[in-house]
Amino acid sequence: MDEYPRNLVEFERRFAQEDDCWDFLRAVRWPGGFACPACGSENALSVRRDLWRCSGCQRETSVTSGTILAGSHLPLQIWFRAMWQVTQSKQGCSALELQRALGLGSYRTAWLLLHKLRRAMVRPGRELLQGEVDVDEFYWGAPERGKNGRQSGTKQLIVVAAEVFGAKLGRIRLQNVPTAAAADLVDFIRATVGAGTRVRTDAWRGYASLAKAGFRHEVVNLRGDGALAVELLPSVHLVASLFQRWLLTTHQGAIQPAYLPHYLEEFAFRFNRRTSHFRGLLFLRLLQQAVQRTPLPARKIRPATTPSG
To answer: What is the mean pLDDT of residues 147-161?
Structure first.
């Protein structure tokens, strides 16, 4: 399905009624027509606007069942407007901004909605990085006395992989890792970078086994010089700088470490689509990915304390 609203006027006209949203969601989930998840039959009867009964096995399937929207009590119009709000701004929005924009009565509702959408920003089976890839780490968190080099303390260690095409950046991946040991760093690279790819890093021993892991490893000796690191590995340092600025401007830096992985995924989703001229297409892509993600009950992401960010 390639149809999507190009601007706010088209969006409001297209989804003026709740039924409009259900029709669109059904077309996105089953672009070739209904297919029963149990028996594969394409014959079904519409029980109501959001529920179909398979003519073969008689199983009833909701349009939202098995997706990130499953179990939600929010109208689809709220979901659609939240996705539109999130994708139309290149910087995204905080839960407080979303609450105000949608007129939600609860900040927690907006917070949970955003966190479910962040899960949907990770496309199942996405392609590995290819070509030439720079990798390095940085820390997120306040400075800590007595911690130097790759000693993290309570700060979060984040590793970045960025495709490099001459002077241009391609796609990126970010992930916070427990340590800068080889096991954690190499596992991240295996999960995000295609085998045989040229991977450029500094001389940290945590990367020493990359060649044995099947990568063409290029080492840049920085000799502990931070300024030299920015000069010789500019791509990852630019990504790190932009991410930290994004956290400070959009979320005022107020996020809990437990949810950092999902903010990293949102930043990567935005960065990798930074050149898109069709913001409505991002709305469609996010919706398509939302119906591919399995349900996420609120209890699994609800924080013990008042959420932030």
So the answer is: 73
